[in-house]
Amino acid sequence: MSQKNFKCFQRLFAFLFCFVVCFCACFCIVSCRILIMKISMINYKSLWALLFILASWITFTVFQNSTKIWSALNLPISLHHWNNSIKSLFLKAPLIPLKPLTETELRIKEIIEKLDQQIPPRPFTHMNTTTSATHSTATILNPRDTYCRGDQLDILLEMRDHLGHRKQYGGDFLRARMSSPALMAGASGKVTDFNNGTYLVSFTLFWEGQVSLSLLLIHPSEGVSALWNARNQGYDRVIFIGQFVNGTSQVHSECGLILNTNAELCQYLDNRDQEAFYCVRPQHMPCAALTHMHSENKKVSYLSKQEKSLFERSNVGVEIMEKFNTISVSKCNKETVAKKEKCKVGMTSTIPSGHVWRNTWNPVSCSLATVKMKECLRGKLIYLMGDSTIRQWMEYFKASINTLKSVDLHESGKLQHQLAVDLDRNINIQWQKHCYPLVGSMTYSVKEMEYLTRAIDRTGGEKNTVIVISLGQHFRPFPIDVFIRRALNVHKAIKRLLLRSPDTMVIIKTENIREMYNDAERFSDFHGYIQYLIIKDIFQDLNVSIIDAWDITIAYGTNDVHPPQHVVGNQINILLNYIC
Predict the structure, then answer these.
(1) Taxonomically, which superkingdom (predicted)?
(2) If we measure between CA atoms, which residue out of 269, 265, 306 comes closest to residue 285?
(3) Residue 516 confidence class, pLDDT cut points 50, 70, 90
(4) 44-64 and 66-73 helices cross at what angle (nearest 10)?
(5) CA dihedral of 37, 43, 49, 54, whole degrees rounded to 10
């Protein structure tokens, strides 16, 4: 509420208060008048005058000290209270002109509105009316005894509820995968939602052999709607605990992206990018004394009891094609597949983007060569920026290049800034964590933390500089606007970088899929999938490449936020092919 409106509200309250006081005073006067008439007609006039003077004095005192009375009553004056309780009193008051939305805010609004249309509310009165994997049917279109390598296999999926009734709308969160465990082979399938309860699931038969098909109902459409609604309601499912140090004194205080408190706050604001983080200011401590941070899950949920039942372990990731037999795929004497060009930056991605064969990733649109890592990285400056899934790359580089030496940057903890160099080959590889939110029970230093946009801005960039960015996992527990704003700000920073240094190579690594049964409201892969779509949409106009870790980890079937080393190695091999 503006200061001007607040003062008007004070005056209005004072006026109402005075009216009540005057009414009571008049009532007393009338009562006294009757009593006086009975007692003495002589003293009537003098007592009447005295009571009138007393009532006038009370009214004048109240009006003049309205602000103090307001404070003493300790009434709520929040914006929410103003909007919902008092707005009817000011319908004809002149409106204060609103500040126009910035370009970033307009883009955030546009993306959220588009997502809201794709994820409409799906209220349900009983579990029986939600999508059931057991009662849904999958039918192979144009079935054959044997398929040929390279063929497309299509499946029509008809969704039903637990009572066997056909669903009339789509929106279920499905995951399609084909695999041959004996061949260490796997690939994702493409799911097309017709928004009427039917889906087309398409598999490209990349290899010969016996192939198993899987179609998981991760969340029914009702669960998807519940997760989307819950996600955008609050910032307090995860709270942050900041450590402030001043001399020998240490104090812990609650922190967060938004804090619902009347206490004095420390604001850590990036004014240009309008990203902020707050801590309750400890007594006798300056805001600059914040040194360390960790997070804790709070016992807060925005799901109803009925909605929570959709995310019990038995209802998550249920197989629809459980009774299906494996299919047989043969070579069929087809002509040799034309040789694909080598993978390079800027190539468009397909769905699926590739497949795994003998534990090796093979893209659809290009070919990957085996690259000698040491020679490929000679003279290169590699910046790895983001979360722990890109830190895995740093650890892989250090384990794979025995001449890389770690440099002690005099920081502590697993989330410390890491630097490794090979002086003979002039290789420089470094990793730094992204700024808030950074979720985890492990305490980490915030002394050197900065937003990735600032790190990108101070990077000179040139043809031997490579930047790899990964964002997502730590944003899942928070409203989607937080992630969108961060992605847009990183987009603008990369745009500035490529303007001054167009030869700089920039790679965006998307999120990995993660554990399926781990706290759906905070960390469901549905949240990750929405962020995956946002990343692909926001960065499509820049000369950057996207390493589709989402599709790669589905193909490998990892279901682990930190996939095994061989999966990380195959992600890095894509990078090496881009560089060399």
Answers:
(1) Eukaryota
(2) 265
(3) very high
(4) 70
(5) -90
